[in-house]
Write a structure and sequence with these properties.
The chain is built from 22 helices and 16 strands. With about 500 residues, the protein is α/β, with parallel strands linked by helices. It has a domain of about 240 residues: Rossmann fold (3-Layer(aba) Sandwich), CATH 3.40.50.1100.
Length: about 500
């Protein structure tokens, strides 16, 4: 079954999978979604014996139907190989009565690697399929993890350049150093003086600015995106939910068909939306626990039906979730409206105009898959400490948010189902925060904290961190939010 992709705001804006990946964002500002979800036979007894790469081929073949099996296999083989320290790619382990899906064994020790190692290969293949002769410029904003994962995926990829904007002072020291030390002749990293929402909003404007688009075309270039607004970022994330369920079947934890609850730390809503897609195509997932930090706009949305971004913005110890405008929520809103693009477009117009929208009672009937919860800074630290005390397992602050949300959810449920926590980053990406939570009085910098954390917990520092210590700073560009467009023109030498 061939699957095309349409805009959440205009049903007539239709593209093949490869065209949607190349374009990134619909011209009307909407996000691409599959016109219908694929019908897949998920034999979990068979999947349990398959490698991550084999599961990826099955799922991506079902969603990206204009790619051949050979093309997808080549992309998968290039994406999921020796750059992952664990050959299982996304192992599942049990600690403190929960199952943890470890998505931090890739080159940047964060879950974004699972999608951003394959996106450049999908994009290059898509360009060839569509006889695309322009240079692809990846323009993206990051709250911490997407930036480095995208840079690592696209560096030195022929026919591409990548520009990453990040909020100065709004990412962890290790996240920042990962970005500013990135090699590659086609990479640019820019610190901006606003928060992630400011940067992401401006990136979306630039992606859809007719004048900028014309300048790009005159110079033989076209924008695309590496954020999860790109369907080529989102679909590969579905794979690890299928793989995780199959692994739990293999371990004897689940009988096929048994329901599994999932707690997902999320800011831009992409990771949990991938779980929603996985459930829709037949993975027996129960409640999708949407775990937020102190920037709890999503928690409030699921409690009230009101999405309101006019609120204080907090810099927290889980910076990749310091987001108020959750782009992928638009895709869920589209499904809540029973796939009504006109209604979805009106909600997004209200958000742009008023800073909020309120969904209808009928739409609330369609969101029963979700449960919203959040952890403040104290609760995050307590979850890190309790997980280590109870299971000698070291987790990062984002995973801790998901642990706290899972615990809150379980207190309200009379029957506890097996529960999967999505562990989105290594503790060594935030060693000062983790050390402080576990032992108090953290060393003055992240690298000293990483050394002491390793000694105290008898865990190994990932290569992604140890290699950073002496890495030279290569990117020193800064910009205001207002001047991001001029910065792009300067970096790309647009005439």
């Amino acid at each position: 079954m061939a699957i095309n992709y349409c805009s959440t705001r205009d049903a007539s804006e239709k593209k093949s999978a490869s065209q949607a990946i190349l374009q990134g964002l619909s011209k009307d500002g909407g996000l691409f979604v599959p016109e219908q979800l694929p019908a897949i036979q998920l034999d979990f007894h068979a999947l349990a014996e398959q490698s991550y790469q084999e599961v990826a081929l099955k799922i991506l073949s079902a969603f990206l139907t204009d790619f051949s099996e050979t093309e997808l296999k080549d992309c998968i083989d290039a994406a999921y190989g020796s750059q992952f320290e664990d050959p299982r790619i996304a192992p599942v382990s049990e600690h403190d009565g929960k199952y943890f899906l470890e998505l931090f064994h890739g080159p940047t020790i964060a879950f974004k690697d699972l999608a951003l190692q394959i996106l450049p290969h999908l994009m290059r293949t898509a360009a060839k399929k569509n006889h695309f002769d322009k240079e692809i410029v990846i323009l993206t904003a990051t709250s911490g993890d997407t930036g480095k994962a995208a840079l690592e995926g696209f560096k030195n990829v022929a026919g591409t350049q990548i520009i990453v904007f990040y909020p100065q002072g709004g990412v962890s020291p290790i996240q920042e150093k990962q970005m500013v030390t990135t090699e590659g002749d086609n990479t640019y990293v820019v610190a901006v003086d606003g928060n992630f929402d400011d940067a992401q909003t401006q990136v979306k404007k630039l992606l859809n600015d007719p004048e900028m688009r014309e300048k790009m075309a005159k110079n033989g270039k076209q924008f695309s995106s590496a954020n999860s607004i790109n369907i080529g970022r989102l679909v590969p994330q579905v794979v690890y939910y299928v793989y995780a369920y199959a692994q739990l079947v293999k371990q004897g934890t689940l009988a096929v068909g048994e329901t599994l609850d999932v707690s997902v730390p999320t800011g831009n809503f992409g990771n949990i939306l991938a779980a929603y897609y996985a459930k829709k195509i037949g993975v027996p997932l129960g409640r999708l626990i949407c775990a937020s930090n102190q920037n709890k706009v999503l928690t409030d949305f699921f409690a009230t039906g009101i999405y309101d971004v006019d609120r204080p913005f907090y810099l927290t110890t889980s910076p990749s979730m310091d987001i108020l405008v959750s782009s992928n929520l638009e895709r869920l809103v589209y499904y809540l409206t029973a796939e009504n693009p006109e209604e979805t477009a009106e909600f997004m117009a209200q958000l742009a105009r008023d800073g909020e929208y309120t969904i209808t009672e009928a739409m609330k009937e369609n969101w029963k898959d979700f449960y919203g919860a959040y952890a403040d800074e104290r609760e995050t630290a307590e979850a890190i400490h309790a997980t280590y005390q109870n299971a000698h397992y070291v987790i990062d602050p984002h995973t801790a948010v998901a642990v706290h949300a899972a615990d809150e959810y379980r207190l309200q449920e009379t029957q506890a189902l097996p529960l999967l926590v999505v562990s989105t980053a290594s503790a060594y990406k935030f060693p000062q925060v983790v050390y402080q939570s576990l032992f108090g009085d953290a060393p003055a910098n992240d690298f000293a904290a990483a050394d002491k954390l390793s000694q105290k917990t008898d865990t190994k520092i990932p290569k992604a961190v140890s290699l950073l210590i002496d890495a030279p700073i290569r990117h020193k560009e800064t910009s205001t939010i207002a001047l991001m467009g001029q910065t792009v023109e300067k970096l790309l030498h647009l005439s």
